[in-house]
Design a protein that fits this description.
Largest sheet: 4 strands, antiparallel
CATH class of the largest domain: Mainly Alpha
Main location: membrane
Strand order of the largest sheet: 2-3-5-6
Number of domains: 2
Number of helices: 10
Subcellular location: Cell outer membrane
Radius of gyration: 38 Å
Organism: Thermodesulfobacterium commune DSM 2178
GO molecular function, one term: porin activity
Structural class: alpha+beta
Pfam families: OEP
Strand content: 5-15%
Helix content: 55-70%
Order of helices and strands: HEHHEEHHHEHHEEHH
CATH topology of the largest domain: Outer membrane efflux proteins (OEP)
CATH superfamily of the largest domain: Outer membrane efflux proteins (OEP)
Length: 427
């Protein structure tokens, strides 16, 4: 009785410890993985830094709206000639200059900077979408490899069952020893496949951890929640084409680049017009290095109208106009590429869906055929070659289901990425 109680307690504590080890694992959903990746992935930070350079340029342009204050020192030496003594004057004091009108050149430069920042915002969003899709791809690759491993384990069990059946028939003289050898070869092949897929899932999981900037040594401490392909549905092609042109960040970025270039052209045109500056200065003037006797105050305004600048302004304007036409063509080319990408992704999804449905039907047919031929082999109506041939096809069908299932899920996410959306994110 004591032994029974001791074994019961041992089993109870072993079960409790095993449950604790399972519950200690960190379980992450796909959405949580994407959010962790966006928080920790360095590609996002690089994109944000690129945007910051545009922000600094905006601040630089905006400074043109404010007055500039200088501390100015001048030294003049005058030789009046005719034997008269030289005159030296030191002047030292503040100098203020404020451009109050530049024919709107500064204003359009500022608008250009704002639109370039907006374009960089969309490029950050593009990076977010790319990183998210990379995480999704690695995440689905993990489950694909895991499914292939599980399918290989089922194949191994079928091969072992066939081996037991062949040995039993050989022992009673109903089949030759060659059947046993063929069945053993099938077991060895199945064991090889199991070994081949044994660690590929961990490798795929480690890639996911790398993308979210996690330590790969925690591969055994983290598990992922699976997705169900039954929840995947898509709409008609026109919906995705329209959505892509409305939401793809690449299109939005190009639109802002075109608008920014238009403001750039207007800014150059403004340089042909007059500018108005206010200026003021207060100097102490003397013939000593540090003057302290005479004071001079100046204030006024200056109107400047460029008459001839060596055709510099015309060349600059023509250059920016050409740049504007280039930006418009780039936008058109981007739209055409996006339409092609959406169309291709849509057809890839349809292909993946039909492949998955065909794989399921094939697997069901192979399972039924294998069950029948196994029964025939037991009664001597089929050879070992018939059984091993169908077992090989059954193994291939299981692998096809595993691969096509996660190809279907990935094609769904790829299609939405081509439209500028990730279902798990609200962008």
């Amino acid at each position: 009785m004591k032994k029974i109680i001791g074994l019961f307690l041992f089993f109870f504590f072993w079960l409790l410890s095993s449950q604790n080890s399972v519950f200690a694992k960190e379980v992450l959903s796909l959405k949580e993985l994407i959010l962790l990746g966006l928080k920790n992935n360095p590609q996002i930070q690089v994109a944000i830094k690129n945007k910051e350079s545009s922000v600094f340029y905006k601040d630089y342009v905006r400074s043109g709206f404010f007055p500039f204050l200088y501390l100015k020192y001048e030294f003049d030496r005058k030789d009046p000639g005719k034997g008269l003594p030289n005159q030296e004057v030191h002047s030292f004091g503040p100098y203020l200059n404020w451009n109050i009108f530049s024919s709107f050149s500064t204003w359009y430069s500022y608008q250009e900077a704002l639109k370039l920042i907006s374009a960089q915002d969309f490029m950050v969003k593009k990076t977010i979408l790319d990183v998210s899709l990379n995480i999704i791809q690695a995440y689905l690759e993990y489950f694909k490899q895991k499914a292939l491993y599980e399918a290989a384990l089922v194949d191994l069990e079928d091969a072992k069952t066939l081996l037991r059946l062949a040995k039993k028939k050989y022992e009673v003289g109903l089949s030759p020893y060659a059947d046993v050898l063929d069945a053993e070869a099938k077991v060895k092949q199945a064991e090889f496949n199991v070994t081949n897929y044994k660690y590929t899932a961990d490798i795929a999981k480690a890639k996911v951890l790398t993308l979210i900037n996690y330590d790969v040594l925690k591969v055994e401490e983290i598990e992922f929640l699976p997705l169900d392909e039954k929840n995947i549905e898509i709409k008609d092609l026109n919906f995705y084409l329209k959505t892509a042109l409305e939401k793809r960040p690449e299109v939005k970025a190009k639109e802002n680049e075109v608008l920014a270039q238009e403001d750039r052209v207007k800014s150059i045109k403004g340089k042909f017009g007059p500018t108005v500056d206010l200026f003021s200065s207060y100097y102490q003037v003397d013939d000593k290095f540090f003057p302290d006797k005479q004071n001079e105050f100046t204030a006024g305004f200056r109107i400047t109208l460029p008459i001839f600048t060596g055709f510099q302004r015309i060349a600059e304007l023509n250059k920016e106009k050409t740049g504007l036409e280039q930006k418009k063509l780039e936008k058109l080319n981007t739209e055409l590429q996006i339409k092609q990408e959406v169309f291709t992704s849509y057809k890839n999804y349809q292909t993946a869906k039909e492949n998955f449905e065909s794989a399921l039907a094939w697997l069901k047919s192979m399972e039924e055929d294998y069950r029948i031929v196994q029964k025939k082999y037991e009664t001597g109506l089929a050879s070992i070659v018939d059984v091993t041939t169908l077992l090989a096809r059954l193994s291939e069908a299981r692998s096809k289901v595993a691969v096509s299932k996660y190809n279907l899920i990935y094609s769904f996410y790829e299609l939405y990425r081509m439209t500028g959306v990730i279902p798990e994110l609200d962008l």
